[in-house]
Sequence to fold (370 residues):
Amino acid sequence: MIAPKQLASGSAVILLLFGAACAGPEAAEAPLAVPTFQADANWPILPADFEWGQVIGIAADSRGHVWTSSRSVIAEWDPDGNMVQSWSARGPDENWSVVHGLFLDHNDFVWTNARESNLTLKFTREGEHVLTIGRFDETGGSNDTELMGRPAEIWVDPVDNEVFVADGYSNRRVIVFDGESGEYLRHWGAYGEMPDDEYRLDPASSEPSRQLRTPHGIAGSRDGHIYVADRANNRIQVFLQSGEFVMENVLRPMCPPRSEPPTPGCARAAAFSVGFSADEAQTYLYVADGGSHVIVVLRRSDLEKVDEFAGPGTGTGQLGRPHNLTVDPQGNIFVAEAAGPWIVDAAAGDSVQAGFRAQKFTLDDAGTGR
Fold:
């Protein structure tokens, strides 16, 4: 669903209408308080023979089931955390590599990427492969309309079945396809401009990058906006579904070269994945900050930070490189943890690497916090 054309008549108008859409009709009387969460130590219930690798894809479906990708195996978990099924997404020849990102669409199809094989893939819920976008082990740059460049995450519009891909680790763009045929529709880069693979950011410049750098997370809101987690630029950029730029926010300042003294609070990668609060207006935007090992809460209307939670560690509610996140219909957040920081385990007196799991953060019963 491309947002109505009148939204594109100017930046001020876009922001004004965008803020009103996010606020909702009763927001002036009773603004939604910032949600708070409790980590659930009992989710998931791992089968005896199951072992996590890096978890680099997670998605909740309309039934409240959660899907994960680890070791190129897709697993489905019911709301209580029991495994329902699992199947390999490595392809008929078992050579599709690094199955990355997950999305369950409105028709119950499972979308993911074989990142290192440069493929975007569509499966049935039972694991039958039905569509491939791209060609195995081929890439053609950020303006090629047939080939992918190590794609990261996916979102599918339930209104017109358009597939939006953050393409991603090698390319510098969002690219859109028809969800039935896989036909190319359009693409764009930072600020809605065409991507330029020759561009290099001057490290001494204080200006923001004119190109996406590892566009990694992507999600679409109910009011027709696309949110991109521009990982290596530490920022969120927002677009209309047509690709027109709306606004951005940098989560943390960029760190200087490693040879220079660090800047307090800086990061080298801060925006990994995005999801929305479950209220009708989707008041808040959740961001997985894989560099600082926290979940950042932004007010969606202006992208201002209002909270963050978790922190680096191996305990329940701590995080090791939160890589992807999803929100179920009840508003609970699920986080996929890839390989994270080295943490001193006080009990063992040894260092362990955090990450390598999925966690559930349950929305407080009241649904709101402070």
Remarks:
- Residues 55-197 form a domain with the Neuraminidase fold (CATH 2.120.10.30).
- The chain has one helix and 24 strands.
- The first helix runs from residue 11 to 23.
- The CA atoms of residues 342 and 353 lie 4 Å apart.
